[in-house]
Every structure is written in structure tokens, then in C-alpha cells.
Design goal:
With 144 residues, the protein is of the alpha+beta class. It contains 6 helices and 6 strands; from the N terminus they run E-H-E-E-H-H-E-H-E-E-H-H. The protein has helices at residues 18-26, 54-57, 67-73, 85-100, 120-123, 127-142; strands at 10-14, 37-39, 51-52, 78-80, 103-108, 111-115. It has a 3-stranded antiparallel β-sheet with strand order 1-6-5, with helices on one face.
């Protein structure tokens, strides 16, 4: 009889509000001070919202909606373009994740799947504990 295969240990790492965090980091005197922040373009642009601060989300602003609608919902918000630093920060996060998992598969610029199969003997802790340590490492190494 073959033993049952070990359960999969797949972890989704989602850098929530990634574009907002990078915008605040890239422009601490502008976006960094804006409580109500919309990332995706200027208030007059025909673009869509890539991300919004948690405070702006309370007004109904959501990713994927036209910026014009987001501005109507939250007229006090500061609108900024997607920072160029997003690619760099995404790669920095990927590098940290790669130190924790043998397989890291990006799902988007701000989401990754980590296959932690086979790491049970290495980490010797519940997956939730490993996830918390990975999160702390990403914050320490990237500031995000």
C-alpha cells in the first residue's frame, strides 16, 4: 500500500494596497502625507484605479473603477500615477519570498504563490507561523 501523499502547503502572499504603499514610500512629502489616496493617474485622467488607501475605500473607491468615478466618490483624495518604483519593489518582495520557499510563482505584480511543500522538517511549525515570519521578513527587508 502506498502512503497518502503529504498535504500541499501552498501560501498566497498578497501585498495588499501595494500601489498605495509604494506611492507613499516614493513620495513621502506628497502621497506619503495623503490620508485619502488614489493610485492610477491624475484626477482628470481617463484611467482606472489601481489601488486606494483604506481611508479612500471607505468612500466606495475600489480597484478597477474609473478614476473619474473614484474622484466623485472621494473628491478630497489625492490622485497619483502608478510609481515607477513598483517594479523594483515587486522584485524585492520576490527575492525575500524566494529565500523562504523552494518554488515562488508570481500571480501579478503584488501577489505570489509559495509552494512550501517539503519545508515541514525545516520550519517545524504550523504554516500560519511560517506565514507570519515571512510577512515580518518582507516588511523588514522592503519596508512594505
Amino acid at each position: 500500500m502506498n502512503p497518502a501523499p503529504a498535504p500541499r502547503r501552498i501560501l498566497l502572499a498578497d501585498a495588499d494596497a501595494f500601489f498605495v504603499a509604494v506611492a507613499r514610500m516614493a513620495d513621502p512629502d506628497g502621497a506619503g502625507k495623503a490620508r485619502l489616496l488614489i493610485v492610477g493617474g491624475s484626477a482628470q485622467s481617463r484611467g482606472v484605479v489601481c489601488s486606494a488607501s483604506y481611508e479612500a475605500r471607505k468612500f466606495g473607491v475600489r480597484s478597477g473603477m474609473p478614476i473619474s468615478r473614484a474622484v466623485r466618490l472621494c473628491p478630497q483624495a489625492l490622485c497619483v500615477p502608478v510609481p515607477r518604483a513598483c517594479g523594483t519593489k515587486s522584485r524585492e518582495i520576490s527575492a525575500v519570498l524566494a529565500r523562504w520557499a523552494p518554488v515562488v510563482a508570481p500571480a501579478s505584480i503584488d501577489e505570489w504563490y509559495l509552494d512550501l511543500g517539503g519545508t515541514e522538517a525545516l520550519y517545524r511549525e504550523p504554516l500560519a507561523e511560517t506565514a507570519h515570519r515571512i510577512r515580518a521578513d518582507v516588511i523588514a527587508q522592503t519596508g512594505l
